[in-house]
Amino acid sequence: MRTLTVELGTRSYPIHIGSSLLNDPDLYRPHVRGSQVMIVTNETVAPLYLEPVRQALDGLHVREVILPDGEVYKTLEVWNRIFDALLAERFARDCTLIALGGGVIGDMTGFAAACYQRGVDFIQVPTTLLAQVDSSVGGKTGLNHPAGKNMIGAFHQPRAVIADTDTLGTLPQRELSAGLAEVLKYGFIRDAEFLDWLECHMTGLMSRDPDTLAHAIQRSCEVKAQIVAEDEFESGSRALLNLGHTFGHAIETGVGYGEWLHGEAVGAGICLAAALSARLGWLTEAEVERTHRLIAGAGLPTGRPADLAPERMLELMAVDKKVLAGQLRLVLLKQLGEAVVTSDFDRDALAHVLA
């Protein structure tokens, strides 16, 4: 097991990464302050991993709520089922929620924990690659709205993250590729050496070599933990983690939640960001081509959906959390391994890239 720490003073918390962690009581018990635990999971994950987590919590008052699986269910209506379960069982303020699943479950559970009785503890137990390297770390929680992705939410840090790499063995290949988009993102924004390593080890990642995956997860979490410690509430450098996301969220909203996986949309968004960066004179065409090879090598799309018009993309991008004073801000690449947040780009160049 490898353990990292997200350094946030008195709210610092561990990220445990390794094999056979789900049923280890020593990883949960230090972070459960009361006796009541609500496990939130979905219909896909529950038959696979609910029982090992319950075993680790033996002796506590454990209940579960099982939600439908998919991005399309990341809504206020489905989210409310968590509160129905908590209130039906009369859970108190010292209860703990456990998010057992991918990014959707993590986001919904974290937001419920932020809101229930004005804030209770929760533990992230991510079971997808994307959740293990990104959404489980950093305290971003939220829900989707028909007008925009993740527009309703709160910052609420977990007490711990328990990333059992064994769960990746049951992950569909498409979901694995979606997670690799976020892994690649860390190399693009801050670690050119890691990007080189990913390029050399993509075959091992795609074939799920355990040691290769473990290193990729560890390095991704190291980069994210460092950035979150620098800027917990995204007032500065944390926005760099959104490389490809403004484009990607527009794709997800435009085609309908769940049609494209989040990582697929982010992969295409990274390619679009690279193309715009080249038009600003920051990247060479060779670097744009390398970006496309890396994204495609992970089994991801490299451009917007053919049936999503550029004009519609622009409309959806205008509904983005990084818009300030009416100005759209994008995360672009000064070079591979160095990103910047900027509103100083030519709108015609953006329109050309989208077209």
TrEMBL record:
EC number per UniProt: 4.2.3.4
Molecular function terms, GO-annotated: 3-dehydroquinate synthase activity; metal ion binding; nucleotide binding
Cofactor notes: Binds 1 divalent metal cation per subunit. Can use either Co(2+) or Zn(2+).
Transcription recorded as keyword: no
Principal subcellular localization: cytoplasm
Boundaries of every 3-dehydroquinate synthase C-terminal domain copy: 179-323
Keyword hit for Chloroplast: no
Protein task: Catalyzes the conversion of 3-deoxy-D-arabino-heptulosonate 7-phosphate (DAHP) to dehydroquinate (DHQ).
Protein known as: 3-dehydroquinate synthase
Record organism: Allochromatium humboldtianum
